[in-house]
Amino acid sequence: MLEEKSVVHNLFTDLSRTNPEFKLFVPAKNNTLEIVKLCVDSVCLFFEEQKLQQGDRVTIIAHKNTTYFKIYLAALKFGLVFNPLNPSYSEKEVKYFIDDFNPDLVLVSSDINPLIKKIINNKSKAIEINKLIDVNRPIEFKAAAVRPQDLAVLLYSSGTTGLPKPIGLSHENLKTNAAALSSEWGLGASDVLLHTLPMYHIHGLLISLNSVLLSGANLIALPKFSVEEVMQYLERATIFMGVPTFYHRILNNPVVKKINYSKIRLFISGSAPLSESILKRFKGSTGHTILERYGMTETGVISSNPVLGKRKPGSVGKAISSVSLQVRAIADGEVGEVWVKGKSVSQMVCEKDGWFKTGDLGYLDDENYLYLVGRSKDMIITGGMNVYPKEIERELEQILPGREIAVFGVPHSDFGEAVVAAVTGPQMKHDEIETNLRTLKSRIANYKVPKTIFNVKSLPTNVMGKVQKNMLRDKFHDFFEV
Q1: Using one digit for the tens of pLDDT, what is the confidence trace for 79-95?
Q2: Of 398 and 52, which is predicted with more confidence?
Q3: What stretch of H or E contains 250?
Q4: Which of 122, 241, 269, 448 has its CA 20 to 30 A from that of 295?
Q5: pLDDT level of residue 17 (50, 70, 90 thresholds)
Q6: What torsion do the CA atoms of 388, 358, 341, 153 make, to the nearest 10 degrees?
Q7: C-alpha distances in angstroms, 146 versus 75, 153, 357, 422?
Q8: Number of Cβ atoms within 10 Å of the Cβ of 295
Q9: Three-state secondary-structure class, residue 307
Q10: Whose CA is closest to 229, among 199, 206, 249, 204?
Q11: Is 245 helix (H, G, I), strand (E, B) or coil?
Q12: What is the DSSP letter of 10?
C-alpha cells in the first residue's frame, strides 16, 4: 500500500535518497535537486495565494519549458488535479475542454491567442506562467495528505461518440506505473534521459518524467523534438524515448552515422506502431535495437520488450510487472481482444471486476510476447498523436454540407499513419481541396488536418449502411508509397 501522501513527496523522498546529485538540464541552464525543490515549494505557495485547495483543478496550456515541469510537480505535491492541454488547440477545442473540466485555475503561455484567453476568463481565471519563472522563495511547503485513490492527473481520450472523454489517473496509478518501469528498464542515478516529448501527452508527462524522477535518473529537457538538437545532445544521454516518427527523422539525418552511441543503453519507442523497416534500419545505422513498448492513456505502459533478452520485431513485448494481461480469443495464439488489469489502470474505465477492454486486437506467442494487429475502433495514430475521425468528419460536414465524408488513416513513412479523407459529391479540384483544408486548419489542431482529400463516387458500406473504412484503407494504402 502506498503511503497516504502526495506522489511527488514520495518521488522526491526516493530521489533524494538515490541520487542527491540529480540535475534537470536545459539548454544553457542546469537545475539541481535543491533548486527544483525550492521552485516546486514556491509554486505551491503561489497556488495557496490563489486560494486553491486540495482537490481543486488546474489546467495548463503552455509550451514545454523548465517552469512547466515544476508546475506539474507542484500540482501533485499540493494535491491538485493537473490537466495539460495541447497549446495548438483552436478556440473551439479549448472551449470544449474548459467547459468539460471546469478548472479553478488555468496557466497559459504569454503568447496565447487572446481569444482563447477570453474563453478561459469567461469560465475560470487565466494566469501567464512567465509570472512564475523566477518565483524561488525559501520555504518548505508540506505535501498534501492525499490518498492513493485521489485523482492526480486528468487527460482526455476519445469516446464512442468521437468527442474527447476525461481519463482520471490517481496518485496510485502514477506511482505504480513509474515504479514498474523503473524496475523494468533498470533506470538508476547514472542514467540521463533526453526528453523531447510533449508534456500534454501521457508519454512525455507520465511515462517518461515519473519513471525518471522515481529512479533518481537525470533529465535533459528540450522544448520539443528537433532532429538537429537531438543529434547535438544524444551523446550526453543514456536513454532516449520517442515515437516512430522521431526515429524515422533521425534515420534521415546525415549525422546519424557520425554519432558516438557508446554511452546510450536504451532507445525506447511507443505511442504508435513501430515498423520493422525502421527497426532494421536503426539497428544498421546505430548498432542499437529499439525497445518497443505498448501503453494507453487509461493504463500507462502495459507491456515492454525486455532490456535484457529477446526484443522481437513486430511485438510490443510482455506484460510489465504491475499489469495482468489477457487476450480473449477463442483459442490460444489466435487474435482476440486485449484486456488488462492492475493498479496502474484508471478505475474510471474498468469493469466491475477490475478489467479494462483496451479496444486493441492482438495475440500472444508461446513466450507470452504480445503482437497487436489492429484496433477495434478507427482511431488514427499520426506522429504519436491520437486522432479521432468522427471529430474531423463533423467539422468537414460543416465545411462541405450535403456530402458523405469518411476520415481514416493510411501508412506514411514519416508519421506512421497519415490522416486522409474521402468525400462524395461534385469533384473538387486541387485548389478547392487546399482551400477547404485551410478552413479546417482554422478550426482544429494542425496534426488532425487530413494530408489530402480523395474524391469518390460513393463510400463503401455494409448492409446496415455502416461505412467500411477498411476498404478505403485498402484502396488508398499505397498513396504515400511507404
Answers
A1: 999 999 999 899 999 99
A2: 52
A3: helix 244-251
A4: 448
A5: low
A6: 0
A7: 12, 13, 28, 49
A8: 25
A9: coil
A10: 249
A11: helix
A12: H
Question: What is the pLDDT, as a whole number, of residue 217?
Answer: 87
Set of cell numbers at residue 376:
477495434
For residue 46, count other CB atoms closer than 10 A to its CB. Answer: 20
Q: Which residues contact 211 (CB under 8 A, 6 or more apart)?
A: 177, 178, 181, 182, 185, 187, 217
Closest CA to 126 of 149, 144, 158, 103: 103
Angle between helices 244-251 and 276-286 (to 10 degrees): 50
Q: Which residues pair with 375 in a beta bridge?
A: 360
- DSSP letter, residue 309: S
pLDDT, average across residues 334-359: 93
- Is the pLDDT at 427 greater than 90? The verdict is yes
Calculate the average pLDDT of the chain: 88
Q: Are 350 and 388 in contact (CB under 8 A)?
A: no
**Residue 47: is it exposed, middle or buried by C-beta count within 10 angstroms (0-12/13-18/19+)?**
buried
Amino acid at 445: A
For residue 31, the one-letter residue type is N
User: Which among 148, 108, 140 has a CA at the least distance from the CA of 10?
Assistant: 148
How far is it, in rounded angstroms, from Cα 298 to Cα 296? Answer: 5
Distance of alpha carbon 189 from alpha carbon 216, whole angstroms: 5
CA–CA separation, 475 and 298 (whole Å): 33
The three cell numbers of residue 264 are 546510450
Beta bridge mates, 164: 158
C-alpha grid cell for residue 417?
499513419
- Residue 228 parent element (H or E): helix 227-233
Residue 224 to residue 197: CA distance in whole angstroms: 6
Q: What is the pLDDT of residues 279-324, one digit of tens each?
A: 989 999 999 999 999 999 999 999 999 999 999 998 999 999 999 9
- What's the pLDDT at 33? 73
Let me know: does 199 contact 224? Beta carbons within 8 Å.
Answer: no
* Secondary element (H or E) of residue 161: none
Report residue 287 as a C-alpha cell.
548498432
- Residue 56 one-letter amino acid: D
Do residues 269 and 243 make contact, with C-beta atoms less than 8 angstroms apart?
Answer: yes
Task: For the chain, list the domains and their CATH numbers.
Answer: 7-373 (3.40.50.12780), 380-475 (3.30.300.30)
Can you tell me the distance from the alpha carbon of 32 to that of 17, in angstroms, rounded to the nearest whole number? 14
Query: Which residues is 239 bridged to in the sheet?
Result: 193, 266
Q: What value, to the nearest 5°, has the Cα angle with vertex 475 and ends 473 and 476?
A: 70
